[in-house]
Write a structure and sequence with these properties.
Beta-galactosidase, Chain A, domain 5; alpha+beta; TIM Barrel; binds alpha-D-galactopyranose; ten-stranded antiparallel sheet
């Protein structure tokens, strides 16, 4: 009976959410309106038959009408109409000098395209397809729009050759998002490096183009395919307009944010055109990745909350049903920092016993369990058990882990090979290479060419065997270098004797398609398997990989102070549910010693894990670890799936909060979806001038409700036990944090309305 009620309730909720998407066609004006959450996006065909963007902003009334689309006139002989009109998917042609969504070569020598309207189909209340065609050549471009009730629209394109001869594509974007024409915009983006990912930048949008990209073959640490654009005079964390978006592609990508001289502001993203080529034979299509975007007038904080909700409910795999979140992440222990590659089955089992004592739910063996992998010079590619370390196989270790009440996970790095490996000795041609050119090694390893069908089959088969023969619940899928010699002389249409460079360049796309395919097949065959995407830290995080993996490893840097900034940047674009966060030992890479409590609380802001060398933990460490792990279990659904409020940011770009506010304080708050619970994490990074801790005003609570406050540290919270939401948000709470790296947490349970 309860189940039946739950199903009815979830159906009722789904229909409320579904009502928040609508695709409406005004056939008289040849316009389409897409509502998603609290935003509307509108497009229309103009008097020159070209498709242009009409509107992107707050939701319009259901019967709203926008003026009929009109091609903007030639402003001067140097500003033709294709440059003065916010075209929806501008191809290079007719004098387009700004970023092109598409650039193609025709077999007759024409290298331009001029796309005009062909047809449109409203497939459902949340999906629209508009077809454009070139004025003369047999090229059609299908533009797809999908509306999600959380407040996100995805767009992608499919370029189709309807002729009898082969075309070549040199540039293909997923979509172009046009913002209202004007000035005064600010642009936020994320850059990074190994050990320093997720650095947030916000600068005024200057006339010209701001380009972020990866040419590395994968998403990369260097930048993440995300943007948030606000208005400098209006947008803050709490309010003001924000247009935001994310590209879902795990290969080389490019995103350009343009403010043309005429202040047409647009964001174009898709496959990186660098070294790109795609042969489009008659009847074939090239589909581009999804480019998701949304609008809010609730500031950067609300933009993040929309993204988080959208990702948990729509993107992440293993949802019990559409529009519901997957279960929150289990607490992981990973042995990497404790043992690196020097271990035996016995030492792993001893660590497992200790991990269980703290309340860990999943035990993961990292690098070093296979082949001759005793250091990072050898063994990658040899995915059979190292018999010296596991003389009796994996089973005794997995059984032991299970007997301790934990599930078992293991590390893999499938796309890599060490030259010193059996795999490389057998198949030297499987590594990416150009003829005669010395291959560049990074961390003594080479890239396997996963674009090759034989490499793909080999990879699927050994992963499938590993997971089928052992009770493995989780793979940490790593990827520790980038591309350097992307040759592929066995690509269809090329050979060592007669190279066809254009055919070989498809490696950039085919590799990633095969990577997705291997994961998709593996998950289909092993539906309970969970996967983490790791790439020397956070080098492969995007909505393409997150639709196939359950969590990511955002950074190898687990220093608590650095992590505060890394996590702050991460949550601007991705949900805490995906943010694996380990407590590790000190000193870490910053040679800083921080108390265990602050390290635990910082890791509790995401999917808590431990990478500690538990052999060195004292009884007090175990007691605190167990206490905070138990506390985490009571708040993790709120943390991972609730609404996140960055109350005071720790500062990024190497700028600590001590430079932003006098006492170097930062706080993050999470509110449960049903409002029944909230949790506050508060930090004092470095006390200065003996100034007291600032008042912390909470957000997102019910002003008419009363909350019972459970303080982690009785001596750091001196307020009442029950407090009204209006007081918590208006007057705030006083915390007594002092010294360096102090920290505390409050859990608030709603007791009445
Ligand atoms: C990468 C990962 C680490 C660890 C090592 C193992 O650096 O980011 O967490 O797995 O590889 O070699």
């Amino acid at each position: 009976m309860r189940n039946c009620c739950a199903v009815l309730l979830s159906l009722a909720l789904s229909s409320v959410l579904l009502a928040q998407t609508a695709v409406r066609e005004d056939s008289a004006r040849r316009q389409w309106y897409i509502d998603a959450g609290k935003q509307t996006y509108a497009i229309g065909v103009n008097d020159q038959e070209m498709l242009q963007s009409l509107y992107w902003g707050p939701k319009l009334a259901a019967d709203a009408k926008l003026p009929t689309a009109k091609m903007h006139p030639e402003r001067a002989s140097i500003d033709p109409p294709v440059g003065t009109t916010p075209l929806e998917y501008p191809a290079w042609g007719a004098g387009l000098y700004t970023e092109a969504a598409l650039k193609a070569n025709s077999p007759n020598g024409d290298r331009t395209l001029v796309l005009v309207y062909d047809s449109a189909k409203v497939s459902s209340s949340d999906e629209l397809e508009v077809v454009l065609k070139d004025k003369t050549e047999p090229i059609r471009v299908h533009l797809y729009y999908h509306a999600y009730p959380e407040g996100v629209i995805s767009r992608w394109s499919r370029i189709e050759n309807t002729g009898k001869q082969t075309f070549g594509i040199e540039q293909a974007a997923s979509a172009v998002w046009n913002l209202p024409q004007g000035t005064g915009y600010q642009h936020s983006w994320l850059t990074g490096m190994w050990g320093g990912e997720w650095q947030l930048h916000t600068e005024p949008l200057l006339t010209g183009a701001a380009v972020i990209e990866s040419r590395k073959g994968s998403t990369s640490h260097q930048a993440n395919p995300w943007f948030a654009i606000g208005k400098t005079a209006e947008t803050t964390e709490e309010s003001g307009p924000v247009w935001f978006g994310q590209l879902g592609w795990s290969g080389s990508w490019r995103m350009s944010v343009e403010d043309t001289s005429l202040h047409l502001v647009r964001v174009t993203a898709g496959y990186n055109p660098f070294d790109f080529y795609w042969t489009l034979k008659p009847g074939e299509s090239l589909e581009t990745p999804k480019f998701y975007a949304g609008y809010t007038d609730g500031g950067n904080g609300e933009a993040s909350r929309i993204e988080h909700r959208f990702q948990t409910d729509e993107i992440l795999p293993r949802r019990p049903a559409a529009m519901t979140p997957p279960p929150p992440r289990p607490i992981i222990f990973n042995s990497w920092e404790a043992t690196e590659m020097t271990f035996t089955d016995q030492t792993q089992m001893a660590l497992a016993e200790k991990a269980a004592k703290i309340g860990v739910e999943r035990f993961v063996i990292d690098d070093g369990w296979f082949g001759q992998r005793n250091d990072d010079h050898r063994g990658l590619g040899d995915w059979y058990l190292n018999k010296q370390k596991f003389p009796n196989g994996l089973k005794p270790v997995i059984d032991k882990v299970h007997s301790l009440g934990m599930s078992f996970g293991i590390w893999v790095e499938p796309e890599m090979v060490n030259p010193d490996s059996d795999l490389f000795r057998q198949h030297p041609d499987w590594a990416m290479q150009f003829p005669n050119r010395q291959r560049s090694e990074m961390r003594q390893q080479l890239m396997l060419n996963l674009a090759r069908p034989d490499v793909k089959e080999w990879m699927f088969n050994w992963l499938d065997k590993l997971v089928s023969e052992n009770d493995i619940a989780f793979l940490k899928w790593d990827y520790n270098r980038n591309w350097s010699e992307p040759g592929w002389n066995t690509a269809p249409g090329t050979s060592a004797e007669h190279p066809n460079i254009d055919a070989e360049k498809e490696i950039w796309i085919r590799f990633v398609q095969n990577y997705y395919d291997v994961i998709d097949r593996l998950r289909k065959k092993h539906p309970q398997l969970e996967i983490e995407s790791c790439s020397a830290g956070g080098g492969r995080v995007d909505l393409g990989v997150l639709s196939r993996t359950d969590e990511v490893w955002p950074s190898d840097n687990t220093d608590a102070l650095d992590r505060l900034s890394i996590q702050d940047g991460y949550t601007h674009t991705y949900t805490p549910q995906t943010m694996a966060a380990w407590v590790t030992d000190v000193p870490h890479m910053e040679r800083r010693s921080t108390p265990l409590q602050v390290r635990l609380l910082v890791a509790m802001q995401g999917a808590l894990g431990s990478g500690n060398n538990l052999n060195k933990w004292s009884d007090e460490d175990f007691a605190l670890g167990a206490k905070l792990t138990a506390l985490y279990k009571t708040v993790r659904t709120t943390v991972q799936q609730g609404s996140l409020y960055r109350l005071t940011s720790p500062g990024t770009e190497g700028q600590h909060a001590s430079l932003n506010n006098e006492v170097g304080a930062s706080q993050v708050e999470y509110v449960a979806r049903d409002g029944s619970q909230a949790v506050l994490f508060a930090y004092l990074h470095s006390m200065r001038y003996a100034v007291g801790y600032p008042t912390v005003r909470l957000r997102g609570l019910d002003p008419n409700a009363t909350y019972r406050i459970k303080a982690l540290d009785a001596d750091k919270y001196k307020g009442d036990d029950t407090v009204s939401g209006s007081v918590l948000m208006g007057a705030g709470v006083q915390l007594r944090l002092a010294g360096d790296y102090d920290s505390t947490a409050l859990v608030l349970e709603r007791v009445s309305r």
